Amino acid sequence: MVLLLFLSAPAWAKDQPASPPGTVVKVDTPRTTPAGTQFTVPAEWSVRVRDAAVLLDPPESGSHVVLVDVKATDADAAVAEAWKAYASPKTWPLHVATDSSPRDNWDQIRVYSYETSANDKRGVTAIALRHEGQYTVLIYDVDNAVGEKRASQLRAISDRLLPKGYQRETFAGKKAHPLDAARIETLKTFVDNARKAYDVPGVAIGLIDHGKVVFAGGFGVRELGKPEPVDADTLFMIASNTKALTTLMLARLVDQHRFDWNTPVTKVMPEFRLGDAATTRQVEIRHLICACTGMPRQDMEWLLNSKEATPASVLTALAGMQPTSKFGELFQYSNLMAAAAGYVGGHMLYPKMELGAGYDLAMQKQVFDPLGMHLTTFDYAKASVGDHATPHGLDVDGHTAVAGMGINDSIRAARPAGAAWSAISDMLRYVQMELDEGTLPDGKRYVSKSALLERRKPNVALGTTASYGMGLMVDHTWGVPVVHHGGDLTGFHSDMLWLPEQGVGAVILTNADAGVFIRGPFQRRLLEVLFDGKPLAQGDIDAGVKRLKQQIVAERKRLVVPADAGEASKLAGRYQNAALGTIQVDKNGTATLFNFGAWGSDVASRKNDDGSLSFVTISPGVDGFEFVVAGTPARRQLVMRDGQHEYVYDEVK
What we know:
This protein is α+β, with helices and mostly antiparallel strands and 653 residues long. It is 28% helix and 26% strand. Strands 1, 2, 5, 6, 7, 8, 9, 10 and 11 form a 9-stranded antiparallel sheet that branches. The longest helix has 22 residues, at 537-558. It is globular and about 65 Å long. Residues 1-20 have low confidence and may be disordered.
């Protein structure tokens, strides 16, 4: 293997601008590595070139993204040389190495995930990309808080990570094929095969082409081990797809002159507060659901402390939240802010009603009834007695199993962000209205074009090829705009999308956590069918299934199941955190359970590389919550973290 070291720039790099150490770019800036690999330097990041390595640093210290050009015999050797070139101050043990499906003229893409302990508060990954014998290795060595806050900028680096001189496939200017019987069958077969490959019990899809529903139906069953099939009327939780329906309600209120998109929220709801007074003053109606205010994702408060949560307590929680980036600077997804958007709209219409009831009625009258979405509901009890899907997750050994609904119940208090149940038949009515830019099938105007389309205008960048509006994303990765949004809750993963220029729309709903890996390839396969695109989607499925299985095996090796009895015996019986509530530690035979009130889970134990001990939830659908043992025998503690926050549970004596 040979690491490329240049004493002077080769001829093909002479047009590459010189890069003094630590040059800070003011806007997203396209660059190339010394060997010509294309990438983007995010705004406000510094860039420096050191031989064959390009080092990118965010404004925060201690995090690095590194690109290294390497000539090597294989990916493993390339990554080893890249780490030498980076000269990281610390090394990490390899957790698992998996292959991704080749694309963008890369002949091979191999991903290396490294073991970091929770106390490291860090994520470390390397990706080896090969093109014609030349490797470019991308290393992420990033603090968790920085990684979450700057996720859209990390995406910007890789959005256009392309081999030298390569132009990505584009469908711009191409005429889309009609979704005829053969193409519909191709999509159906693809989805059903993907469902089987990922062991997802049930999937439903719907397709629209130029004002006509050309397919609406399902594959598989509503619940594992039961015969009832999924169909076009099967209810699934649509999770964050609820957000676009919420902003549609707000658009109707803009048309009714109840407020406009630029109205300060405190003018509509004077008691609205964020933890930062300056940010509170700046927040207009549009900003509640733009993911652009700098308010971080802060879900643990409602996921783990939902038993007594109400819409009012959700708004109270917002008053304790602080922004972690400047207003309008970075994409930061906040479910609690999105919940506030819905409650503000409902409060405007029904100021004397409880916030949740006002929102529910506003959605029924402004959205569901006018669009004919007669199945869609926020009533869990109503949804669960009819044709509905059951959520599924993976057990600790990677087998599909029924998941509990407890954690999904937690979203009720923040329901404008993601608590709706809906079906393909209803969601297609919504998508058709979007394609028709606010008119109904009978030609009547439902919402003004201007208010509707305002929701798609970019408020903040999602990398270099997509943007976030108000509960909707617009993606230009493949040259044509695709408007969409995904939804994720335990056992329910979905996507809705439409191509405004082609008059085509689609919805996919799944009832298992592995369904999250189908929706991206489904979108890609739809584009391939419409535009005769390169066949990439099936490769994504094949590689994804293999990668998931490898990751499960690697993680299982680190876990002690049931949790080590000696270590579990040292736990207190009860812990409490002011923001997250309580943990009741229970025993069920040899198993240790953590009970959070609204839901609970068996836990495994794991000894970490730094000498610490963690207890990790492992029940299907709620796996992966990690609690690190801390404190002293006299004052026992557990520490749980999300990307930008740390929560300490203290023993209750």
